[in-house]
Structures are given as structure tokens and as C-alpha cells.
Design goal:
The chain is α/β, with parallel strands linked by helices. Helices cover 42% and strands 8% of the residues. It is globular, with a radius of gyration of 22 Å.
């Protein structure tokens, strides 16, 4: 029989309230009693005592537009991969609210360390979606400038970016841009990872360093229930957000299909980091409605009934219902968003297929400031190999 430790002796961080540290069992189909939610699946606006947002109708419409366009990006990229134009694509279907909510919580001076699925966060940081397609098409290593966008390059090594984020956050402390009280200067870092990555040693090491140095970093875990084909029940015996307590900083679980709740919780955690109060773990409880990547077949390991149940919690549909029910958006607005999505789709298709193939030798560039001898030999050998085809064709 499995038992869970009694947390009665623990005290909660005052910023997040006492209700956020109560232990509950791992089988919580709807996220559990501690789930922060501001917009129900039916589109009803509710309030939370510790986290809330007061948004204008224009801001609400902006969040809907963001999610709708990011979903169109995901649909187009998936289609391009199926047509052989991309080597791979990591889908975000169903996770739009988690990404747009946290993306819109960022200040300009904050910095993001993504995985390989943060297309919505990239959108919020003004990264051209064609740069994302170029990466998955294999024509570049990520065509955007991380410094200009406050958004790092995609990370394929599972969990490695959490250590990068923690080190960067410690650097912010030493640069004197944490806890100064200047809202335009104080900065924080956010590291994205999934529930599967939470089992990696790198993630746990990042937690240790962040806690020890009180680093201004927010760990944002998109718990989409599946680490490729392994369910969350095989990843942890307690809810993921409660792991933070063992490292000495607060954790919170938010409805990852609720863009308002995600925005509110991430804003609070980032502000806490900027003020010098240290790290926070956010578990965005959501669901991967698509495949892990376009090489995956999720029908082999999960039930279609689960997918159908989560479709009823669709993050875009619930905000659309809220906007329509409360007279916050008219038919013309939704028509305009649909037309903008069509235009985005056309631009992505045309832009992707027009991308030139890279110089094969470019793979050796932008890696070392001083190229080591063994890499020079590999480059020269590969160049000679390519030249042999031209000579044979003469």
C-alpha cells in the first residue's frame, strides 16, 4: 500500500496562501481541489481569492486572437510536415492557453528558456513563425535573435534548459537587476518543460540551485498528462507542483486550459521573482490533444474517450463562449480573426516552401569561436566528398 507524507508541519509561502500546500492523491482527473481557475470549461467567469485578473474587453479579445492564430500555426505546420515540407513538428494542440497565458505575463526585460513546443510563447515574444518552421525544416538552427526577443533557442535535450535558465537568473542577481524596486529594470526568467522532463536529473538539479541561491526563475511545467507514451501516474506519486516544497520554494497548480488563470498565476510568480523572493514552480494542468510529435501515434497508448473528454475543456472554445455570452465580441470580430488566420496560413505555406536549402558546409559554422583541428578535418573531408560529385558529373 502506498502512503503519502503528512505535510502538517509545513507552512505555506505567504504570497500564495495556505491552501496551496495541502497534499492530495495523484489521481485527480480534473486537476484536484487546489486547481486555480478563473474561466470554467463552460465559459463562466469565476474568481480566486489569491489570483485574479481584471482585463478589458480588448485584452480578452487579444488573448482569443493569440490562441486562434497559434492554433492555425500548429495546424499548418502539421500539414506541411505531412506533405514532406518539414522533417518533424512538435504539436501544441490543446495547450494554447498555457502558452499564451504565460507568454502575455512576461515583461519586456524577462527572458524565456523554451523546450521545442513553445510556439505560443514564441508568438508572444514576436518571433516570426517562419523561423520556427525553418528550424523544423532543417534549414537553420533557429533563425531568431534570442537577445532581441528575450526568447532562447529551442532545446531538444530534455530538461537541459532549466539549468540554463537558473544560471541566467543567477546572473541577473549579480547584474543588480533583481529586487531594486524599478519595475522597468527588475527582471526574471521563465523555464518551460513538460511532465516527462520533470523526471530528468537536470530539472531537479536546477531546483536545488534555484532554491539555494534564491534565483529569480519561474519553472513552468506544462503537464499534458503524457511523457510521449508514459502517463503521468508513472512519473510521480504526488501532484507535480508539490515537489517544489521539498526544494524549499512554493508550487502551484493552475488550469492550463484557462488562459486567464494562467496569466494571473504567471504574473504573480514572475513578479515575486523580480522582487527577489526566489523561484516558483507552476504546474499548468492541461492535455496534449495531438501527438507528441508528428512521428508519434497516440492511438497506440491512450483512450479516445480521454481525448473526447478533454475536447470539452478546449481553451479556445471556452473563451469564445465567454466573449459571446457577455457581449464582449461580435460576429465581425470572429470573422476578422478567421480571415487573419487564413492569411497567416497562406504566408506560412508560401514562406516555408520558398526557403532555400542551406549550404551543406554551414553545419560547421556558428559552433566554435576557434574551430578545433578535428572539426576542421571533418569539414575539409566533407567538402572533398561533396566536390567528388561535381567532378564525377563533368
Amino acid at each position: 500500500m502506498t502512503t503519502h507524507p503528512d505535510p502538517a508541519a509545513r507552512t505555506a509561502d505567504a504570497t500564495f496562501g495556505p491552501d496551496l500546500v495541502e497534499v492530495f492523491g495523484p489521481s485527480q482527473a480534473d486537476g484536484g481541489p487546489d486547481l486555480v481557475q478563473l474561466l470554467t470549461p463552460e465559459g463562466e467567469r469565476v474568481h480566486h481569492p489569491d489570483f485574479d485578473v481584471d482585463l478589458t474587453p480588448e485584452e480578452l479579445r487579444g488573448l482569443y486572437r493569440d490562441m486562434a492564430l497559434v492554433r492555425r500555426l500548429d495546424v499548418e505546420a502539421t500539414a506541411l510536415q505531412r506533405h514532406g515540407e518539414l522533417g518533424l513538428w512538435a504539436q501544441l494542440l490543446g495547450q494554447e492557453a498555457a502558452q499564451i497565458g504565460c507568454g502575455r505575463a512576461l515583461a519586456p526585460q524577462d527572458f524565456v528558456f523554451p523546450t521545442y513546443r513553445e510556439h505560443g510563447v514564441a508568438w508572444c515574444r514576436d518571433v516570426d513563425p517562419l523561423h520556427l518552421l525553418g528550424l523544423f525544416r532543417g534549414v537553420d538552427h533557429g533563425g531568431w535573435d534570442p537577445a532581441a526577443h528575450g526568447f532562447g533557442l529551442y532545446t531538444i535535450v530534455i530538461g537541459a534548459q532549466t539549468l540554463h535558465a537558473t544560471g541566467y537568473a543567477m546572473g541577473l542577481q549579480r547584474d543588480g537587476v533583481v529586487g531594486t524596486g524599478d519595475a522597468a529594470r527588475d527582471a526574471a526568467v521563465i523555464a518551460h518543460f513538460g511532465d516527462g522532463a520533470s523526471s530528468q536529473g537536470d530539472v531537479n538539479e536546477a531546483f536545488i540551485f534555484a532554491a539555494s541561491y534564491n534565483a529569480p526563475v519561474v519553472f513552468f511545467c506544462q503537464n499534458n498528462q503524457w511523457a510521449i507514451s508514459e502517463p503521468i501516474e508513472r512519473q510521480t506519486r504526488i501532484p507535480l507542483f508539490q515537489r517544489a516544497l521539498g526544494f524549499g520554494f512554493p508550487g502551484i497548480r493552475v488550469d492550463g486550459n484557462d488562459v486567464l488563470a494562467t496569466l494571473a498565476v504567471t504574473r504573480a510568480a514572475l513578479q515575486r521573482a523580480r522582487e527577489g523572493q526566489g523561484p516558483t514552480l507552476i504546474e499548468a494542468y492541461t492535455y496534449r490533444m495531438g501527438a507528441h510529435t508528428t512521428t508519434d501515434d497516440p492511438t497506440r497508448y491512450r483512450l479516445s474517450s480521454d481525448v473526447e473528454r478533454w475536447k470539452l475543456k478546449d481553451p479556445i472554445a471556452r473563451l469564445e463562449v465567454h466573449l459571446k455570452r457577455n457581449g464582449l465580441a461580435d460576429a465581425a470580430f470572429f470573422d476578422d480573426v478567421a480571415a487573419e488566420a487564413d492569411a497567416l496560413g497562406a504566408r506560412l505555406r508560401a514562406g516555408c516552401t520558398a526557403m532555400p536549402d542551406p549550404d551543406p558546409l554551414a553545419i560547421f559554422e556558428q559552433v566554435y569561436a576557434e574551430v578545433p583541428d578535428e572539426l576542421v578535418a571533418q569539414r575539409d573531408g566533407y567538402a572533398a566528398y561533396l566536390d567528388s560529385f561535381e567532378e564525377a558529373g563533368r
